[in-house]
Amino acid sequence: MRVLIIGVDHHLQSREGFCTNDEEYRAFLEGQWERFTDLVSARIRETGATFVGEEASHKEAAFAQQLCEQCALGYANVEMTPEERERVSEYIRESRPNADSVLQALVAK
Fold first, then answer.
1. Does residue 109 carry a pLDDT above 60?
2. What does pTM read for this prediction?
3. Cα–Cα nearest to 52, from 72, 80, 27
């Protein structure tokens, strides 16, 4: 199995991230988005990937999901859902030591 990992600015994953009223800048962003999706599509074809995992917002479909649907590739969003993120945060809050008790233990030594 070949693995392809690509780091992506989250704003490039969806056109929804283009929050601007400046039409010239929006056109620039659209061009960047098109070139980036073309690059990723080419890399997927070159590597022979049959599955794509993407860390993306669960609010809207990101480009990799749309690409996989068009190309009949397996896809999964590997980003934690908001509910999962809250459960992990709660676990960390409950299980980490109280900062005051850690300071007291250090001072006592």
1. no
2. 0.63
3. 72
CA separation for the pair 32, 28 (Å, rounded): 6
Q: 65: how many CB neighbours lie within 10 A of its CB? A: 19
pLDDT in tens, 80-92: 888 988 888 887 7
DSSP 51: E
Q: What are 10-19's contacts with CB under 8 Å, separation 24+? A: 10/56, 10/57, 12/36, 12/63, 13/54, 13/56, 13/57, 13/62, 13/63, 13/64, 14/56, 14/57, 14/60, 14/61, 14/62, 14/63, 16/59, 16/60
Q: Parallel, antiparallel, or unpaired: how do β-strands 51-54 and 74-77 relate?
A: parallel
Measured distance CA(18)–CA(31) in Å, rounded: 12
